[in-house]
Write a structure and sequence with these properties.
This is GtrA-like protein. With 135 residues, this protein is mainly alpha-helical. It has five helices and no strands. 78% of the residues lie in helices and 0% in strands.
C-alpha cells in the first residue's frame, strides 16, 4: 500500500488534488463554523474560509505540488489567482442566492480547484518565469 501511495504522489495532479482537498476541507469547516456560530452570511463565511485555506494552500502548493521556492513574487501571483477565482465563484454563488447557504459554499469550493490548477500550472509556477534575484 505504501508503494502505491508513493507512486501516486509522484504525479503533480495527485499532489494537487490531495493538498487542494485539505484546503477545501479547511475552507468548508471555517465557513460552516462561521455560518453556524457567527451569522448566516455566505460572503463573510467564504472570506474567512478562503483566508485560512489560502495560507495552507500557498505553502502546500508551492513546496509539495509545484516544488518551487516560497517567495513574494509567487505568493503575489498565487494570491491574485486564488482571489480572482474566489470573486468568480462568489459571483456564481450570488446567481444561485435562492439555494441553501451551505450548498452555495459547497458550490464555491468545487469551482475554485478546476480554474486555479490550470492558471497555477501555466502562470504562477511556470518554468518560464525569470529567475528570482537575491537582495
Amino acid at each position: 500500500m505504501a508503494q502505491l501511495l508513493d507512486r501516486l504522489l509522484q504525479y503533480r495532479l495527485i499532489r494537487f488534488a490531495l493538498t487542494g482537498g485539505i484546503a477545501t476541507a479547511i475552507h468548508i469547516a471555517v465557513a460552516f463554523v462561521y455560518l453556524h456560530m457567527v451569522q448566516d452570511n455566505v460572503f463573510l463565511a467564504n472570506v474567512f474560509g478562503f483566508s485560512l485555506a489560502f495560507i495552507f494552500s500557498y505553502f502546500a502548493q508551492t513546496l509539495l505540488v509545484f516544488k518551487k521556492p516560497v517567495n513574494w513574487s509567487n505568493a503575489l501571483r498565487f494570491f491574485m489567482v486564488q482571489f480572482g477565482a474566489l470573486l468568480v465563484a462568489q459571483g456564481i454563488s450570488e446567481i444561485f442566492s435562492d439555494i441553501n447557504s451551505y450548498l452555495r459554499v459547497i458550490m464555491v469550493v468545487f469551482i475554485l480547484p478546476i480554474v486555479t490548477y490550470i492558471i497555477h500550472k501555466l502562470w504562477t509556477f511556470s518554468d518560464s518565469q525569470p529567475p528570482q534575484h537575491k537582495s
